[in-house]
């Protein structure tokens, strides 16, 4: 019988900013997610316009209590449904649940010296409920939601104070949950600060005098996050013996559009744009090619004494990543079609089909990605996001027949297994994204559903928020129960 190893960590993944809700409860402060607007008048595939935000936009958001056009304020209301949701995860047989802690629930502004007890107590209840069912939490410390005051008053991660604020937060949660959480991730898709600096880095472009100054700020914020991640790893290891800390990347896999050497070179350069972030967190230093890019762009990082030593001394224990699709690269894009993907757009691959949102479906690309990462870093891998966003519509009898999701996941699980058994990749686990429906990060829509559990809520927050199992629920339950054999032995 073909199956994964006995201690393989099967589960699902969510993020507080898309799933938790309770945006005004328990002393929580506003975050960048709470002021991110759903824009139904903008093409959902035009992610850059979806994410554009100005100081005026933020001021408008602060003035309103609306959650219709600010859907991450309600998410899937896990804040009030966590017991029900965790029971559903347990019924599926989850070994692990990837979630995030909302930084602004613990430090509402981000700059306080004392954490918010109501926020800490909420996650105590969540972790206790998970452990009741034998589910290990895998906790992301920062997942696309810096506290808003930290952003508007300090310019987010551009400020050196960001390192102090973040390490204070990490110290608080590691001390509080040292007996409850073993597995941690520092920054979700840490590479994304380059692509969406407000959501990840808390950077508002109109706070800076020019485009060049803004670009400098982005790279400075990136440095501060590297330092903060290393210090978070140090704090975690010292506070929680036996804990494991990983970095988390957007696995953007690029193929040369043709075998022209120029296209091959462009694909290599595009891949490096993401791999640079893992290079720093694994090897503890800036790679030469990144230094060359800084020189070309006239980027000068402001470092404090000891920063380089911090990076060298506290590398991560494992590599986690998201994988949804692949793309192509070409030196000359004239006349080529562009496809959307996870937080970026790239050239369409004519050999692949695409989801309803234009994301190209490529199970083999997952195996390629795993081999690339493992060969480069020789550290255990953890697939912490993978799944299909689709417009699930209940049938007349109320059932939700999401066979397309089952097919997507089973094909990815097969190639995942091949990477382990044929390529020798060390894989810790697999947590499918949005195991219970949540607000899509890329489009701010509820209708772009990923879960095996349906949440009765539309794009405008209308609905009961009741939970309902989809067809994929029982299928994934069998995957976990057989350790993958029900997929692999067919």
UniProtKB/TrEMBL annotation:
<dbReference type="Pfam" id="PF00232">
    <property type="entry name" value="Glyco_hydro_1"/>
</dbReference>
<dbReference type="InterPro" id="IPR017853">
    <property type="entry name" value="GH"/>
</dbReference>
<keyword id="KW-0326">Glycosidase</keyword>
<keyword id="KW-0378">Hydrolase</keyword>
<feature type="active site" description="Nucleophile">
    <location>
        <position position="385"/>
    </location>
</feature>
<dbReference type="InterPro" id="IPR033132">
    <property type="entry name" value="GH_1_N_CS"/>
</dbReference>
<protein>
    <submittedName>
        <fullName>6-phospho-beta-glucosidase</fullName>
        <ecNumber>3.2.1.86</ecNumber>
    </submittedName>
</protein>
<dbReference type="GO" id="GO:0008706">
    <property type="term" value="F:6-phospho-beta-glucosidase activity"/>
</dbReference>
<dbReference type="InterPro" id="IPR018120">
    <property type="entry name" value="Glyco_hydro_1_AS"/>
</dbReference>
<comment type="similarity">
    <text>Belongs to the glycosyl hydrolase 1 family.</text>
</comment>
<dbReference type="InterPro" id="IPR001360">
    <property type="entry name" value="Glyco_hydro_1"/>
</dbReference>
